[in-house]
Amino acid sequence: MKITINGIVCDAKEGANVLQTARENGLYVPSLCYFPRTGTAGKCRACVAEVEGMRGLVTTCTTIVQEGMVVRTNSEKAIAAQKMVIDLQLSSGEHDCLSCQRNGDCELQTAAHFLGIKKPSYDVGERHCDLYDTSSESIIKDGTKCVKCNRCVDACNHVVMHEVLDMGERAHDMRVICDDDLPMGESSCVRCGECMQVCPTGALVSKAAEGKARSWELKKTRTICPYCGVGCNIDVVTKDGKILYGLGAEENWQELPNQGSLCVKGRFGLDYVNSPKRLTKPLVRKNGQLVETTWEEAMAAAAAGLKKVLDENGPRAIGCLSSAKTSNEDNYAMMRFSRGVLKTNNIDHCARL
């Protein structure tokens, strides 16, 4: 299917919306509420465009492509409406970009830059500055940066289905609430961080990264979560080689076992890598105390202990437990060692579901 956006002929998939098609063809259209995994929203009105044959401006995130469709997201009328929406959002919040964790990776900031908005134009009255919630162990919730896009609510209710977040109050006083307007740390939130990942601004950010890095100083490395047998694809976010948190992999998310989502372990449970309590050398027991030793001495002690049990009680007295924090190849080698060398089938895995 072919459609034309801003004079450029674009390939389009049947059933896709105009905004999705524009992005797939490398065309930027301002948007705050649309997120592929949370579905069509149509709330922020930042992605409006003119479409030949349709009256007025339409939201590109809710408009399904049709063969031969002609769309103009850069017309004078569309740009004026986009500017007004983004300007109002900037005017109604405390968007202190210089100190914000999302500086350089904020969709509101990107839209403002694209539209040439240098500073807020509107006086929207008194701002609510008492919405800074740090009660959660993992997430900072800053309502003064919220753009009421509803992404976090949709993700919480319809993606991970925890049903903790909702929109409270009305009009200018509207804000994201947890349960019956409880602090996040006192609510039924399980700290999976899905809301944090889908947030377009700095309204929901990682507590572990607060004040430690700016977006351009962070590195993302694609890997597999080490915790359970699902095999979630994650992007591990690091600063100077130290892990801060994990993000569900978004690229080709429909094909992944976790479909872009993560649980609390995969997102915030990777700090054991940097823990000073993590063992970096083998230990053997001498005179009732565990002491550091060489790998050679540790292997010899383990072999002697296993041989003693085998000689005295036979292979059924031995069981092996492998770890999710090693590779598939290492776990396979452990299985072969258990069954081929120790002659026991008593082997299990800590991530077996």
Describe the overall structure.
The chain contains eight helices and 17 strands. The chain is an alpha+beta fold. Among the domains are: about 1-75, Ubiquitin-like (UB roll) (Roll); about 220-280, N-terminal domain of TfIIb; about 285-350, no CATH class. It has a five-stranded mixed beta sheet with strand order 2-1-5-3-4, sandwiched between helices. The chain has a three-stranded antiparallel beta sheet with strand order 6-7-10. Strands 11-12-13 form a three-stranded antiparallel beta sheet. The model has no long low-confidence stretch (mean pLDDT about 90).
How would a crystallographer describe the biggest sheet? 5 strands, mixed
CATH fold naming of the domain at 2-74:
Ubiquitin-like (UB roll)
Average pLDDT taken over every residue? 92
Intertermini distance: 43 Å
Offer a concise description of the structure.
With 353 residues, the protein is of the alpha+beta class. The chain has helices at residues 18-24, 76-91, 107-115, 151-159, 194-198, 264-268, 295-313, 328-341; strands spanning 2-5, 8-11, 48-51, 57-59, 70-72, 132-133, 139-142, 165-168, 175-178, 204-206, 219-224, 233-239, 242-248, 283-286, 289-292, 320-322, 347-349.
